[in-house]
Amino acid sequence: MMFRIERDVLAEAVAWTARSLPARPSVPVLAGMRLEVTEKGQLKLSGFDYEVSAEVTLEPQSGEAGVVLVSGKLLAEITRALPAQPVDFVVEGAKAVVTCGSARFTLLTMPVEDYPSLPTMPPAAGRVGSDVFASAVGQVAVAAGKDDTLPMLTGVRMEIEGDTVTLAATDRYRLAVRELKWQPGQPDFSAVAMIPGKTLADAAKALGSTGAEVEVAMSSVGGTGEGMIGFSSAGRRTTTRLLDPEFPKYRSLLPTEFSARAELSTSSFVEAVKRVALVAERNTPVRLAFRDGEVVLEAGSGDEAQAVEVLPVDFEGDDINIAFNHQFLLEGLGAIDSDVARLQMTTSTKPAILTGGKHADKEGVPDYRYLIMPIRLSS
Known about the structure:
Blueprint (H helix, E strand, L loop, with lengths): L1 E4 L1 H12 L13 E6 L5 E6 L3 E7 L3 E3 L1 E6 H10 L5 E6 L2 E6 L2 E6 L15 E6 H12 L13 E7 L2 E7 L3 E8 L1 E2 L5 E7 H11 L5 E7 L8 E6 L2 E6 L18 E6 H11 L9 E6 L2 E6 L7 E6 L1 E4 L2 E5 L1 H10 L4 E6 L6 E5 L11 E5 L7
Antiparallel strand pairs: 1-5, 1-7, 2-3, 2-6, 3-4, 4-18, 7-8, 8-9, 10-14, 10-16, 11-12, 11-15, 12-13, 13-27, 16-17, 17-18, 19-23, 19-25, 20-21, 20-24, 21-22, 25-26, 26-27
Helix pairs in contact: 1-2, 3-4, 5-6
């Protein structure tokens, strides 16, 4: 087996495939990356850990058919460090030799016959623009939980009804919901799936740079959790097993009536929160006091360091003092994709809704909503 290919093309493909490899594989071969030159001359790189699979198909300048398995992480580090010249990859017995310019690396191969077969892509369900897909997933995945002891909170719930996809994620302290349009394979297509949040975020980010549409493929959706979902675009494909579909009834958590609404520059708000939060201990909040024309941001108290900043704000409703975890607030502001941030509140102890001011009028429902639980202020 051998092939020649441009360094940048190979390095990008190897890096993308290596992201699916387990950090601590249960068996040594799962740390490997499978490279195959097909009879048609295509180069396929793949990785699989029984949960997530990734495969990318390339067109090398030349090649001889064959299959080899080498350390994926090591190959990623090598290709990233190679000079900007064509790369020659040749299998010589039990070793693989990578040559690029004056650099030459020899890698031990692994038993390819012990490597598991990649799962078959599920049936295609529909298509969506890669940029829309990447943006929507990024907005929602930020709220997915990181605690593996609560697996249902580590996922992103995908609900499909016809041409509308709703994504939702929560870690109990905030909730992100995004609606988007897509092109279903069937007009009346309906499905529900719980997708591992990190896997979905990685896939969306990688496929979002392709500039092509993303094809979504699903099987056994809304069932026992034994199903699978796949995403493919521009020669790249990835699959993952679905989580159990159990998820909080999140729609009932979204308030529809508010006593106060504030709109202000997103960038100014972000910078002010970052500055004030410098004196906030890990679990202490940033306090916000809204009144006509301004918001006062504060952090720290008593004998500790303190910070105060005042920003102009377009404010309607009852004056309100409310406090948030500054990291959760910053992540929400980073996700709204708008020059104007709109914060709608009811009381200092009830959930607030953060949206982008440009995405809906005062009566409309925005396509992205970020619910954030306030931290109770001590009296």
